[in-house]
């Protein structure tokens, strides 16, 4: 299976890192660092780009690895809520699920992703996996 990088917006001065790739009918997004108020526009543009690409490429699943994302403000997190709402507004045949891989050692992830999972019952799933040594 061919894996290709997805050109997503970069934010050189920020503390949020984001990389994305597509393999077959799955899109993978890896977020790291911190998502605080200065990074909010960058995160919003990344999620919009991922959503647009998922729609145009007929992606069947988006995997998001947030294990190295140490902190996120509620203002940044609301962009995930808006994204899940946008997916839910798509015609049923065009909707795609989002699967988060979270780090059980990062406290905000457990509560926030659980709430997002409750909001997007049929769209959001979460699994926990410790981050690799030295990555967070």
List keywords for this structure.
six-stranded mixed β-sheet, single chain, 33% helix, Transcription Regulator spoIIAA, globular, alpha/beta, 136 residues
Describe this structure in words.
With 136 residues, the chain is of the alpha/beta class. The protein has a single domain (3-128), classed as STAS domain (Transcription Regulator spoIIAA, 2-Layer Sandwich). The chain is built from three helices and six strands. It has helices at 40-56, 74-88, 107-119; strands at 3-5, 16-23, 26-35, 61-72, 98-102, 124-128. The chain has a six-stranded mixed β-sheet, covered by helices on one side. β5, α3 (107-119) and β6 (124-128) form a beta-alpha-beta unit. α1 runs parallel beside α2.
State the helicity in percent bands: 25-40%
Domain count: the total is: 1
Q: Please report the first level of CATH classification, the CATH class.
A: Alpha Beta
The best one-word shape is globular
How would you summarize this macromolecular structure in one to three sentences?
The chain has 136 residues and is α/β, with parallel strands linked by helices. 33% of the residues lie in helices and 32% in strands.
Walk me through the topology:
Blueprint: E1 3-5, E2 16-23, E3 26-35, H1 40-56, E4 61-72, H2 74-88, E5 98-102, H3 107-119, E6 124-128
Parallel strand pairs: 3-4, 4-5, 5-6
Antiparallel strand pairs: 1-2, 2-3
Helix pairs in contact: 1-2
């Amino acid at each position: 299976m061919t894996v290709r990088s997805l050109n997503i917006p970069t934010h050189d001065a920020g503390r949020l890192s984001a990389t994305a790739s597509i393999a077959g009918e799955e899109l993978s997004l890896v977020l790291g660092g911190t998502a605080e108020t200065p990074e909010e526009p960058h995160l919003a543009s990344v999620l919009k780009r991922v959503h647009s690409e998922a729609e145009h490429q007929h992606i069947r699943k988006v995997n998001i690895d947030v294990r190295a994302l140490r902190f996120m403000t509620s203002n940044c997190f609301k962009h995930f809520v808006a994204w899940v709402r946008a997916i839910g507004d798509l015609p049923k045949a065009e909707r795609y699920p989002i699967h988060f891989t979270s780090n059980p050692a990062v406290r905000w992830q457990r509560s926030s992703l659980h709430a997002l999972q409750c909001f997007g019952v049929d769209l959001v799933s979460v699994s926990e996996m410790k981050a690799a040594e030295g990555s967070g």
